[in-house]
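Journal club side-thread
Mid-discussion, someone asked how the predicted structure for our own chain would compare to the paper's figures. Pasting it here so we can look after the session.
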Amino acid sequence: MTYEYEGKTEKEAIETAARELGLERDQFDVEILETQKNTLFKKGFVRICVHTVDSPNHVEPEFEGTLPASNKKRVADPLPQDEFENKLVEFVTTVIKKMGYEVKVAVMFREEHKIGIKLDSSNSSILIGRKGKNLDALQLLTNVYAGRIGREDIRVILDTENYRIRREEALVRLAYTTADKVHSSHTSILLEPMNPFERRLIHTTLNDVPDIETKSEGEGLYKQVRISYTGIR
C-alpha cells in the first residue's frame, strides 16, 4: 500500500511516516514526490510517498544504487556462501541463458538484508537495456524469486559493467546542469521518465540549491521530475 506524508525535511517526513504506520525504517520504501524550500512567502516542505509491503508474496519494485556508504560492510568473496546464494546465482544464470545470452554470475557484495549480484557477459549492453530497464526487470524477477524461496527480508541488487554507479553519477551531473539552465532561464524543465530511486536521487541532489524546487509528475512507476525556478523573476 502507499501513503503520503509531509515534513519540513525528508528526515522529518520519514519519521512521521514510521511513527504513524508503526513500522521500522527498513520496513518501507520512500519516494520523494516534491520539495519546496523556504521563501519569503512560503514555508519549505518535503512531500514523500511511502510504499509498504502488505503480503508475504508481494514484492515492491525497488531500484537502488550501489555507491558505497561508510556504514556498509561489503564482502568481496564472489562465491555463493549458502543454499540461498546458490539458488539465487543459479536462477539468474538460468534466466539469462534462456534469453539466449551467456553470462557468469557472482556475488558482488553482502550486507544485512541486501545482496549484490554481478553479471559478467559479452552482451552486457543488452542486459542493461535502454536507461537500465532490462536490468531493472531482471532485478525485479530475482527479488520475486528470492521472496518465493522464503527470503522476503533480502533485497537483491543486480549490476553489470558498473552500470548502477555510472548511472548515478550521470544523474547527479544532469541534475546540476539542468538546475543551472533553469536558474538562468527562470523557467522549468521536465526530465525523462525515471524509476523511484533515480527520481529520489534528483530530488536530494537539488534539495539545497537556492531558488530551485523539484516535483515528480505523471502516473505509474516511471514518472518525470520537473525542475523549476522559484526565485524572483
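Post-session note: Residues 163-185 form the longest helix (23 residues).
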